[in-house]
Amino acid sequence: MRILRRMHSLGGAVLCLAATFPAWGQPPGRSLSGVASQGDLPAIEFDLVSIREPRNPGDPPERVREARVSLGGPAIRRLQGESEAPGSRSPVQQYLLRFRMTLHEPREGRHYQWVEVHFKFPDPHFRVLDLYPINIEGGGPEIEALSVDRDLRLVPGRTKACLGSVGVRFPPEQTVQGFGLGESKVYWRFSAESDQAVNSGTREGFMLLQAPAGLHAIEGTVWTSAVVGRLTAVGWWFFREAKSSSFEARWPIQ
């Protein structure tokens, strides 16, 4: 499919972060336990494939690998304390997931116009309360600490519910958006204008998830999609959509 898509702006939430992720602090207020190192889990590799019309009648469509995305982690933190979800008597907890998403170099002469990383949790009791980043244009300052406010949102700075040190900076050319808050299906989009490129490299994302209390693992489906562009000899931009297969993931909470 040949497409040219523009990014859609979305109002967002806010956050807070600082230095090295495994060394989460144990501040007063809402405390955390069950830290799982991202180094304990292998990265998931996604091949982004486009479908091209066959050159000869009767031939099957041609599948072309345009790019590759890796999803590392997640490191999972369990917020201590339980509550009841509205309309349900089952106890729930909040879990903080930190992902590392690596965009590998696409095929020679191509660049990313946008890349999306999708998550779907099949359990109807799962609900994503917040994402970070959720609405960043033109990069942003280095984040020093991450906290959860009374409304269960990720906020910048050190409060009584500070989650500790993280240390992350977003590239200045990067636009990041998050979609699907309050639902069990969410995604991030990393995008650029049609004549610009989304640079390859590693991005980080944080997800605040509400799920049944006492889980030993979080299960979900993950997939990626992208639009890859190339500049033709006559000066026109040619864009092609590519998608990956879905992956059924099971991430233990240690």
Explain what the structure shows:
The chain has no helices and 18 strands. The chain is an all-beta fold and 254 residues long. It has a domain of 143 residues: Sandwich (Immunoglobulin-like), CATH 2.60.40. Strands 1, 2, 3, 4, 5, 7 and 15 form a seven-stranded antiparallel β-sheet that branches. The N terminus is likely disordered.
Secondary-structure element order, as H and E? Answer: EEEEEEEEEEEEEEEEEE
Q: Determine the number of helices (DSSP H or I, runs of at least 4 residues).
A: 0
- How much is the radius of gyration in Å? 19 Å
CATH structural architecture of the domain at 73-84 and 91-139 and 171-252: Sandwich
Strand residue content:
over 45%
> How many individual β-strands?
18
Which features does this protein show?
mainly beta; 254 residues; Immunoglobulin-like; disordered N terminus
Short description, anyone?
The chain has 254 residues and is mostly beta strands.
Write the layout of secondary structure elements.
Layout: E1 32-33, E2 44-52, E3 62-79, E4 83-84, E5 91-103, E6 110-120, E7 127-132, E8 135-137, E9 140-143, E10 146-148, E11 154-156, E12 168-170, E13 175-179, E14 185-191, E15 201-212, E16 217-231, E17 237-243, E18 247-252
Antiparallel strand pairs: 1-3, 2-3, 3-5, 4-5, 5-15, 6-14, 6-16, 7-15, 8-13, 9-12, 10-11, 13-14, 16-17, 16-18
